[in-house]
Amino acid sequence: MHFDASGIIYAWDEYPIKNFPPFWKWIATQISSGRCKISQVALDEVGHKYPECAKWLRDKGIEKVGLTDEILKLAAEIKSVLEIEEEAYGSGVDENDLLIIASAKIENDVLLTQEKRLPFDVNRKKKNYKIPAVCELDEVSVVHKNVREWILESGEIFR
């Protein structure tokens, strides 16, 4: 699982550690076993909103995926697919989102994102696509889940 900032921030907001310790113990186990990663740009975003969450992730030893030439190149290719010219981003993904998506694709990970899934609209410009829609493009093809789907798919019962 590759965390987008929105996914882990949602979990932090909706499942506070003091109220859901088994849930966070499970996430800590996922992290320590190497099943969860986060790109450095996503961790930085988490740290801006919730420094204590970013610290918790670092303390649990989450693998941080730094920027590589391969990630930068793939992010630029996705930007081109979305018809974003220079810095003229729309209301959809931004530069960090592209880096996070590219990182998940290169790591061959499922992307945990809480961004809203918008219904397909033939008139919507690609540069206005949110992370889920970008992931679903044939040229990108990154599997994504939200927190609820991740929990349900895990089969875990938190007691």
Provide structural commentary.
By secondary structure, the protein is an alpha/beta fold. The protein has one domain (2-154): Rossmann fold (3-Layer(aba) Sandwich). It has eight helices and five strands; from the N terminus they run E-H-H-E-H-H-E-H-H-E-H-E-H. The protein has helices at residues 5-14, 21-32, 40-49, 51-59, 69-81, 95-106, 131-136, 147-154; strands spanning 2-3, 37-39, 63-65, 111-112, 144-145. The chain has a five-stranded parallel sheet with strand order 3-2-1-4-5. Helix 5 (69-81) packs across helix 6 (95-106). The longest helix has 13 residues, at 69-81. The two termini are 23 Å apart. The model has no long low-confidence stretch (mean pLDDT 95).
Identify the notable features of this structure and list them briefly:
Rossmann fold, 8% strand, five-stranded parallel beta sheet, 159 residues, alpha/beta, globular
CATH topology: Rossmann fold
For this entry, what is the oligomeric state of its chains?
single chain
Order of helices and strands: EHHEHHEHHEHEH
Question: What is the CATH C-level name?
Answer: Alpha Beta
Major pleated sheet? 5 strands, parallel
Secondary structure: elements and pairs:
Blueprint: E1 2-3, H1 5-14, H2 21-32, E2 37-39, H3 40-49, H4 51-59, E3 63-65, H5 69-81, H6 95-106, E4 111-112, H7 131-136, E5 144-145, H8 147-154
Parallel strand pairs: 1-2, 1-4, 2-3, 4-5
Helix pairs in contact: 1-3, 3-4, 5-6
